[in-house]
Amino acid sequence: MSVFPLRALCALALSASAALTLPSPADAAAPASSQTQVPGVYRQAIGRLRVTALFDGTVALPRAQLANIAPEAIARLLDHRYVPETAKGLQTAVNAYLIQDGTHLTLVDTGTATCFGPGLGQVLANLRAAGYAPAQVDDVLLTHAHPDHLCGLLDAQGQAAYPNATVWLSAADAAYWLDPASEASAPQMLKFAFPLARAAAAPYQAKDRLRRFRPSDALPGAAVALDTHGHTPGHVSYRFDGGDGQQVLVWGDLVHYHAVQFAQPRASYEADSDRTAAIAARRRTMAQAADGGWWVAGAHLPFPGLGHVRRDGDAFAWVPAEFAPLPATP
User: Fold this and answer.
1) How far apart are CA 146 and CA 256, in angstroms?
2) What Cα–Cα distance (Å) separates residue 95 from each residue in 19, 26, 47, 277, 312?
3) How far, in Å, CA of 288 to CA of 279, rounded?
4) Sign of the CA dihedral 311, 313, 316, 319?
5) Helix (H) or strand (E) holding 256
6) Which residues neighbour 322 within 8 Å (Cβ) at sequence distance 6 or greater?
7) Could you tell me if 202 and 196 are in contact, meaning their C-beta atoms sit under 8 angstroms apart?
């Protein structure tokens, strides 16, 4: 017998022995952690700033809720973009952002908490996973008063999730969403949001920690508010200066359908309170971000929602951030 057949026979014998002793794939128990994703945390250094993206979960937005654009145009833009879609709609992330400037911590938006059901409400847990305690947050800046942005002001027990923070909401949104009289004339699809907004703001109001502001007002953490109303009456975006020409804009809900609205900024969302103003704000802010080379953080862009905007003909395109290690701390 030659050497080769002998080796082959040995290998065959070992294989047969393994088959007798190893469990079949169906019998093998899966590790307990196999259904658990990594924490929804991503850190990005932008000049002197440390920006931490916090994942809240995903919602499904039906393509039928896109307006001012033909269904066939939507289909072309979504073709081969591989955005996960079910019968309920297109997968859409919900993100919040923690901005650390020295020792000052500013949280922009807070996620959904318990307002939108299971699969969401992860901001508070991910903030802790990132190494921060909720009590460390100095200020919470809200882009607007929709439930997926301010319900996370409360914890699971309905108490203030950020007990030492001052909450900042634009005067226009506060006047609309916190006033019960506004609810009567609101569109039916948005009526549910009014009591949620009042409940989320209540513990901060009770402790005189709710501040109403106009976009021209000075804000904590050197934030600058940009008037981007349209999605809501007082929707704002926040720009932070990281130094050395580095700027980051947390733009809230200027984009809901990233595969469509960069290429077609005129496409609006059914929930926009003023569609004309929302389109104008999207075009204007995308142009500012593209021309200024600003970093952008988007509440409904694929997590971590950090990157840049570039011009693409008469429209725009999204350039997501590349994964990078954090610079060494001196």
Assistant:
1) 13
2) 47, 37, 21, 23, 25
3) 14
4) negative
5) none
6) none
7) no
Q: What's the rounded Cα separation, in Å, for the pair 258 and 91?
A: 11
Sequential pLDDT tens for the chain (330 residues): 444 344 433 443 334 344 434 444 445 565 666 778 899 999 999 999 999 999 999 999 999 999 999 999 999 999 999 999 999 999 999 999 999 999 999 999 999 999 998 889 999 999 999 999 999 999 999 999 999 999 999 999 999 999 999 999 999 999 999 999 999 988 888 999 999 999 999 999 999 999 999 999 999 999 999 999 999 999 999 999 999 999 999 999 999 999 999 999 999 999 999 999 999 999 999 999 999 999 999 999 999 999 999 999 999 999 999 999 998 864
Locate tokens 């951030």: which residue? Answer: 321
Q: Which amino acid is present at 73?
A: A
Number of neighbours of residue 158 by Cβ within 10 angstroms? 13
User: In 132-260, where do the E strands start and end?
Assistant: 139-141, 166-170, 210-213, 224-227, 236-243, 246-250
Beta strand extents in the chain (DSSP E only) = 41-46, 49-61, 66-67, 85-86, 89-101, 104-108, 139-141, 166-170, 210-213, 224-227, 236-243, 246-250, 268-269, 295-297, 306-312, 315-320
| 133 contacts 179 by C-beta, under 8 angstroms | no
3-state secondary structure of 153: helix
CA 313 centroid distance within chain: 27
